[in-house]
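User: Could you check the structure of this?
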Amino acid sequence: MRTKSLKKNKINVVTLGCSKNVYDSEVLMGQLKANNKEVVHEEEGNVVVINTCGFIGSAKEESVNTILEYVQKKEEGSVDKVFVTGCLSERYKPDLEQEIPDVDQYFGTSDLPILLKALGADYKHELIGERLTTTPKNYAYLKIAEGCDRPCSFCAIPLMRGKHKSTPIEDLVAEAHKLAAKGVKELILIAQDLTYYGLDLYKKRNLAELLEALVKVEGIEWIRLHYAFPTGFPMDVLQVMKREPKVCNYIDIPLQHIADPILKSMRRGTTKAKTTKLLNDFRNAVPDMAIRTTLIVGYPGETQEDFETLRDWVKEMRFERLGCFTYSHEENTHAYSLEDDVPEAIKQERANEIMEIQSQISWELNQEKIGKTYRCIIDRKEGNYFVGRTEFDSPDVDNEVLIDARAHYVKIGDYTQITITEAADFDLYGKPCMI
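Assistant: Sure, the predicted structure tokens are below.
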């Protein structure tokens, strides 16, 4: 007779993709911990939950490779069970079940209660806002809405995340209080679209009101805005940013392109003239704001002339932060009906050219910082350096401030005044300011 194993499962949550997935993994881990489950993030465990990304080709490839890697470990006996959740699983569940049948179960983006049940846990409603954070203790993501109502032609997010759904202000404030009690000092507000926040709940764009409520949370010192859509941006947010020192002079506003024919085909609901005016309004309202954007090159029908319009505009606008991606032809999106007619080599060439221009702009802007003193948050120590950020930089994607740990000591998780002594394309070097 076979005896029941007394071995206690250790659940390893593996996160791929964007900060929204990081947040979802943290919520899952918080629920598991409350169910007295042993849970780790990207460490050894005999039960594995892979939170996948399905946004673009390279992300899908990474997700599939990760699934295959853990299925192999299961075959070898070092892992007992493999579960897959997240965007890739939401979007391609039937295909994945057929192609990689050795996964124990696949779950979609809104299947948290069912996933918990499969892991021997119950979904606890009273734990809304409770998370096991995986980021350094001084910052955390705060997801203020789920899904997206925008009709962008190239984007599969509505297929994976559904319609836009704002989280009520009182729930977000309660969550911010819990995070602050754990030592979190910086909130990074995320959503598929911050601009739309509140329209479904309050019948108006309510991001400014949310910020007014969050700045009152004791212990939170920085609030950062990520992923704002340019069309219909609520301009009262800029007044809050200017007035409230806790709201970082920083915004991440993915613009994708600027040539009018491409913007029209992308269904972005704006034009080059409107976008340029919006950014000038930003800079007039908050002169020292750092604007981060992302662009797509090689979209179907993008001519050399369209690309040159984009390239010249990047030179003119001098963004503080910029990322550039090559277009990924995604099935079931509106753009999938168009011919993916820009060769891969040309896409890559165009992306490289944009990033070279940005590298020069970033170097020039960084040179202006030498000799100036900035309030920095210290995230971690890496090798011989303490690594920090100014309010103009978001973790993982933006510039970092490096402080020589052999010559200076700063406390991880604390804010410190740092004087910039040197500057490279994307990094600053500095030393603590002696007051």
